[in-house]
Amino acid sequence: MVFALWAWISGIIIVNIFNSPYAMATLSTINSIAFYLAAFIYASKLIKISIFELVPIRLLITIVVSCLSSLFIIKFLLNQYFTLHNIILLIISGFLYVIAIFIIERLFKIPFTEILKPILIRFRQNNA
């Protein structure tokens, strides 16, 4: 209830002060992060463990850094050396990113395929 009230009041303030979709998107992102953090803190206190034991921080940092770096490298290389239509650029960069994810999975031993298996199984069952 407190979080819903906070989101509503902060939204009104941002609209009245900035009246910008970028400001609203930033506020929404900040609120979402704060709400998830609060939920993690509450859950860790409820089950009496540290939040660092609940959330694998080292693994998350490895995943974020490796994925973002591969995204930036792919985007830089494609923009630097090719002038392509946006749709073709999107398709090629998506294909290269999938290849980069499989390389990152092998290098850093991050189980992306194990994480994605349940999602793909549900997707197949819903579309069948």
Distance between the termini: 39 Å
Q: Would you count the extended β strands for me?
A: 0
Fraction of residues in helices? over 70%
Oligomerization state: single chain
* Average pLDDT level: 87
The share of residues in extended strands comes to under 5%
List the uncertain runs. none
Largest sheet report? none
How would the global form be characterised? extended
How large, in whole angstroms, is the Cα Rg? 20 Å
The H-and-E topology, N to C, reads as: HHHHHH
Please work out how many helical segments DSSP would assign. Answer: 6
Going by helix content, strand content and strand pairing, the class is mainly alpha
What does this structure look like?
The protein has helices spanning 2-17, 21-46, 51-54, 57-81, 86-108, 112-127. It is mainly α. The two termini are 39 Å apart.
